[in-house]
Amino acid sequence: MSTTASGKNGTWRNWGGNVVARPAREVTPASVEELAAAVRRAAEDGLKVKAVGTGHSFTAIAATDGVLIRPQLLTGIRSIDREAMTVTVEAGTPLRRLNVALAREGLSLTNMGDIMEQTVSGATSTGTHGTGRESASIAAQIKGLELVTADGSVLTCSEKGTEEERALFAAARIGLGALGIVTAITFAVEPIFLLTAREEPMPFDRVLAEFDQHWAENEHFEFYWFPHTGSTNTKRNNRSAGPEKPIGQLSGWFEDELLSNGAFQVANWVGRAVPATIPAVARISSRALSARTYTDIPYKVYTSPRRVRFVEMEYAVPRAALVDTLRELKAMVDRSKLRISFPVEVRTAPADDITLSTASGRDSAYVAVHMFKGTPYQAYFTAAERIFTAHEGRPHWGKVHTRDAAYFAEVYPRFGEFTALRDRLDPDRRFQNDYLRRVLGA
Prior knowledge:
The protein is α+β, with helices and mostly antiparallel strands. 33% of the residues lie in helices and 24% in strands. It has 14 helices and 21 strands. It has helices at residues 32-44, 95-104, 120-125, 163-172, 204-209, 211-217, 249-273, 278-288, 298-302, 322-335, 378-390, 405-411, 415-425, 434-440; strands at 7-8, 11-13, 20-21, 25-27, 49-51, 67-69, 77-81, 86-90, 107-108, 142-148, 154-158, 181-188, 190-191, 194-203, 220-225, 231-240, 292-296, 310-318, 344-349, 364-372, 394-395. The strands form 5 sheets. The protein has an 8-stranded antiparallel beta sheet with strand order 17-14-16-15-19-20-18-21, with helices on both faces. Strands 7-8-12-10-11 form a 5-stranded antiparallel beta sheet. Strand 15 (220-225) and strand 16 form a beta hairpin. Helix 7 runs antiparallel to helix 8 and helix 10 (322-335) packs antiparallel against helix 11. It is globular and about 60 Å long. The chain starts with 6 loop residues before the first strand and ends with a helix.
């Protein structure tokens, strides 16, 4: 099954199926020059411009009724600098292709998210992240950027440039598509390494009681809580001297494909048809996955296939507020009539210096709630969002939320810095759409 967004009769849809757009025209540029020309032509025709990756955002961040730029011809590695330990890659390159190509060169990103279907520019522009004690989001690993701005000029920026370039670099690493269209990204890389993953079921109350300890003792700690149960599945990833011990083909197929995708899909179909069955199914699901340990190269440990389609909301709260946030979330689910068939995912990130990063200036914990595609999610997400915002939560830019510019000005100390930069780079709002108007202000 393809995970790219589908387009029929000039209609574009995202992966989750909850966003639809009808652009006036679509452009698939084969070079940066062609992309710049498409932006200038859109300005002449009075049209807005948005670039779209694989449609993995659940917000309308990439939707437009103007010119839709598809970057699938802007792919591949431009250069590898082994002295500086960086790789420069075209913006439309899928993370999967980057990870495989780097591994072939004996290199790897330090940290990554839990899927790799997105393009590098789509993933970084929305703040995609994994989990880590010291290592942060994919955008935090960026060393340089190239982007086409509203007047069709090509800008480059890095942490080493002029003061103006450094301000642009701080903002554009997670630029929401508001400052320009990213055409190339330079990432920091390191020699490929091995990770040992230990997955283990654990009671919800124990995980919360020991959370600080698990966070401190592991380079990468995350867990999934199954609503309607007191059960979680924990995952600890730590660097390893080896040897490689990948998941066996049969057990990998059984746990990752049959249980996590196939049987889970069926359980969700049943739950959608008969919601009353969900708590019982959740109890079975939470017991189906057993403890396992394996050692492999990073992308084979960090990422896993996600074939069951869903809609998602995720908030970053201060790490110190995580335990209270989760206790409140569980209490809310327990006393409600909600029936939640998807586990709640919990990860962490250290503070970073990116202007609109969800971890900007504070150590963060992420809580992600999901609902099966096609089931009503508003009641659950609204109740969860009330809890997240009470803790000054910052929503993931590519996931469902109802916040606006007034809220972001309160929870992001550098919000004004970003909007001032946007005023300078895109005064006519060439890259504006309804979503950006809401989250950044008009």
